[in-house]
Write a structure and sequence with these properties.
Number of helices: 10
Number of strands: 11
Oligomer: single chain
Largest sheet: 7 strands, antiparallel
Length: 429
């Protein structure tokens, strides 16, 4: 992998990005070379690695597209990534700074377990989630041969493993704060955002298409300077449904940077990092501190504590509320929800609310991910137990007290009908 891999994909911020504080962020580094992990040694089973295997065996062939897109459309098709997931970032916080700017933003496309970054006249940047090992990073030269090969280099971890990613190889969505005066182009410091951050503090350095009503955000402001002198949104940057006044959208696969896709990506990135981090810690503890396949008390308490940190995020307990409707302009909200699964009443954890919160049924759809299912049994069993206690109403304590009885019942029923391998007591309940 070339140097670009160091600041791959949605990691807009430098390694020193500022975070919403939490205990899991306090750990800078979980050793990837631990015998229970062997991140660099074990072959990855992430979607990009599996695509490379299909390419090497001749099962598939990637065709080049015109208009400077190269292998991008073919790769998206093979990875099952929809074009309507496109979001656009123009801040110069990637190693490919010479190719990125307001007139040439970086496009990011994503599914539940893979992402592709497209830079005009630059490298393709890819990431894939291995169910056990977490995120792996790749690049593809735009001049790649007829038989392209995705280059992997763990030097990417210099930026992609640290507090912003909970100490494991992971991704970030971050923002830089714009100012309404001045014309500087430096990005200063960045800070990580997810669904716990209010819209007012999100998306500096991003294009955002869609409507948020009176809820202002930092997107579409191309006048970016150091956040030491912050300012608010500029006139003409809110409720943008057409980006053609900013740059030539015909040079991209879609003319949008959908607000709903961006909000979904923010949630998904942290959820992926949480699953990876707790899975790693549990595997290390089982290797180092287990006795007859069971953890000692200290290790058990540590893992249980981490699970208690993940559960509120899974249930959107700390989500910043919306004060009015949000709507995208692409088909993302429709196609994302259509992926289900759905219960007998037609309900899905992928259904959006977009009036007072992101999702109609506030439990992360990432519970269906291969990474969730691949977590060690001691983690998965505890998560199921705690979800059962919370959703059945047995646990009414903070931070779950904001979950209504109606929400708990709906989520309980949806999960009960759509999630495989649930414990028997869940079905009986």
């Amino acid at each position: 992998m070339k140097e670009v891999g160091r600041t791959l994909l949605v990691a807009l911020g430098a390694a020193g990005a500022v975070l919403v504080g939490a205990a899991l962020e306090d750990i800078f580094y979980v050793p990837p070379d631990h015998p229970a992990i062997q991140y660099a040694e074990r072959p990855s089973r992430d979607p990009v690695a599996l695509l490379q295997q299909r390419l090497d065996s001749g099962q598939v062939k990637l065709d080049r597209a015109p208009n400077g897109w190269g292998y991008l459309p073919a790769i998206l098709k093979q990875l099952g990534i929809s074009v309507d997931s496109q979001v656009l970032v123009f801040s110069k916080t990637s190693i490919q700074t010479e190719h990125i700017g307001p007139a040439t933003p970086r496009a990011i496309y994503f599914s539940d377990n893979a992402s592709v970054g497209f830079v005009r006249d630059g490298m393709l940047e890819l990431s894939g989630v291995d169910p056990e090992q977490g995120v792996f990073f790749y690049t593809l030269d735009p001049e790649a041969a007829e038989h392209p090969r995705f280059g992997r280099d763990d030097s990417c971890l210099r930026c992609h493993q640290g507090p912003p990613t909970l100490g494991v190889p992971g991704l970030m969505v971050s923002s830089i704060r714009p100012q309404t005066e001045g014309s500087g182009e430096g990005h200063g410091s960045s800070y990580v955002t997810d669904d716990r951050v209010s819209l007012a503090d999100r998306w500096g350095g991003w294009y955002v298409t869609g409507t948020t009503g009176s809820q202002a955000h930092l997107g579409n402001n191309t006048n970016l300077v150091d956040p030491v002198h912050p300012g608010g949104p500029m006139e003409g940057t809110q409720n943008i449904t057409n980006l053609s006044k900013f740059f030539d959208t015909s040079r991209y696969l879609a003319p949008t940077s959908d607000v709903v896709a961006l909000m979904t990506l923010e949630h998904q990135v942290r959820m992926t990092n949480l699953i990876t981090r707790i899975g790693w810690d549990a595997r290390i503890a089982l290797h180092d501190q287990s006795h007859g396949g069971k953890l000692d008390d200290d290790a058990r308490q540590k893992i249980d504590g981490e699970i208690e940190e993940m559960l509120p995020y899974m249930l959107f307990a700390g989500e910043a509320p919306l004060s009015g409707p949000v709507a995208g302009v692409s088909s993302f909200a429709r196609t994302f929800a259509a992926r289900g699964p759905r219960d007998r009443k037609g309900r899905s954890l992928r259904d959006f609310d977009l009036r007072t919160r992101l999702f109609k049924y506030p439990l992360s759809y990432m519970i269906y991910s291969d990474a969730f299912d691949a977590m060690p049994g001691i983690v998965r069993d505890r998560v199921y137990q705690r979800l059962y206690e919370i959703l059945s109403g047995k646990d009414q304590n903070k931070p779950f007290d904001r979950l209504s009885a109606e929400d708990r019942r709906a989520i309980f029923e949806i999960v009960g009908e759509t999630k495989h391998n649930l414990p028997p007591y869940w079905r009986a309940g």
